[in-house]
From TrEMBL:
<protein>
    <recommendedName>
        <fullName>HTH cro/C1-type domain-containing protein</fullName>
    </recommendedName>
</protein>
<dbReference type="InterPro" id="IPR019293">
    <property type="entry name" value="ThiN"/>
</dbReference>
<dbReference type="GO" id="GO:0003677">
    <property type="term" value="F:DNA binding"/>
</dbReference>
<dbReference type="Pfam" id="PF01381">
    <property type="entry name" value="HTH_3"/>
</dbReference>
<feature type="domain" description="HTH cro/C1-type">
    <location>
        <begin position="20"/>
        <end position="48"/>
    </location>
</feature>
<dbReference type="InterPro" id="IPR010982">
    <property type="entry name" value="Lambda_DNA-bd_dom_sf"/>
</dbReference>
<dbReference type="InterPro" id="IPR001387">
    <property type="entry name" value="Cro/C1-type_HTH"/>
</dbReference>
<dbReference type="InterPro" id="IPR036409">
    <property type="entry name" value="Aldolase_II/adducin_N_sf"/>
</dbReference>
<dbReference type="Pfam" id="PF10120">
    <property type="entry name" value="ThiN"/>
</dbReference>
Length: 302
């Protein structure tokens, strides 16, 4: 009797880890950094490097395994992917390979009696909440890097600070929106980011994003920057529709301004000119965090 988990441990994981170790080394990781990233010992990394670990050719040649190895190596090297997300993505692939796929085929080959049974037990949901949440956080990181790497972004940060946010596909509350805890501030001409994206840490930008969704706009990303007429004009010149709203409106001002506006571009601009005790602010909303970040970055390359 041989369990499919034994094939995962004895054949898939050594092959996968050795492939990932090679990719990380090619991206400049030291042996110690590879060991830390994979959660294994340096001696194990050394064995992978010297070909002392047996590898399964079927996994080596599988395009899905190759693509995942490359994607995880890239994500870990840039910081876009956390070890948690890497683990989740790998688990998803393993479960898919178990369910009537390559791992199941190998299992049947070693346990011929299994071939007479149809179907497979779903032991892992590839659309899990954890996987979706990690992808959203990763998306915010990518957008954040686009902003903070752009020269001059600090000059667009309002006094209240900026934030970059992205929500889950079915978001209905602030806890479903990932953003930067404590906001992004201009510290001596540098955009300062206090922490990694988290869910439920933004009331300001998250509430604007959720109100736009309530008004029927299919948006998941939002960022706020300072306001002046030139900023709005530049965004409009770049092809983004702009809508002004009244922050003192008696009902939700975002919903009031956007209801019935089915003519807006997918990425668009909201702005208010300020009121008593309220700073004038411009918001860019769109499909995800990297998209709205690129729109803001475009202001800095004109």
């Amino acid at each position: 009797m041989r369990f499919i988990e034994e094939i995962v441990v004895d054949e898939f994981l050594p092959t996968f880890r050795s492939m990932l170790a090679e990719e990380l080394r090619e991206r400049g990781f030291t042996q110690r950094e590879v060991a830390d990233a994979l959660g294994i010992s340096q001696s194990a990394v050394s064995k992978y490097a010297h070909g002392e670990v047996s590898r399964n050719e079927e996994f080596l040649e599988d395009e899905r395994v190759q693509n995942l190895v490359e994607r995880i190596a890239e994500g870990l090297s840039t910081g876009d992917m956390t070890p948690v997300q890497a683990l989740v993505e790998t688990e998803v692939l393993i479960r898919r390979l178990e369910e009537g796929d390559l791992l199941a085929t190998i299992h049947e080959r070693e346990m011929p009696a299994l071939a007479e049974y149809d179907g497979a037990l779903s032991v892992h949901d590839p659309d899990s909440t954890l996987r979706t949440a990690e992808r959203v956080r990763s998306s915010v990181r990518r957008g954040l890097r686009a902003l903070t790497n752009a020269s001059g972004f600090a000059g667009l940060i309002p006094n209240v600070g900026s934030n970059l946010a992205e929500c889950l596909p079915d978001a209905d509350g602030i806890e479903d929106v990932a953003a930067i805890p404590g906001r992004i501030f201009d510290v001596k001409g540098q955009a300062t980011v206090p922490g990694d994206p988290e869910f439920g840490v933004s009331e300001h930008v998250a509430s604007v994003l959720l109100s736009a969704r309530e008004a029927g706009r299919d948006v998941r990303g939002a960022v706020n920057i300072c306001h002046d007429d030139d900023v709005v004009a530049s965004l409009e010149a770049a092809g983004y529709d702009a809508v002004e709203f009244d922050p003192d409106a008696p009902t939700d001002p975002i919903v009031h301004a956007l209801e019935g506006r089915d003519d807006l571009t997918d990425t668009f601009v909201l702005y208010q000119r300020g009121a008593y005790g309220i700073e004038a602010i411009t918001y860019v909303l769109g499909p995800d965090a990297p998209t709205v970040a690129r729109a803001v970055r475009g202001l800095l390359t004109e």
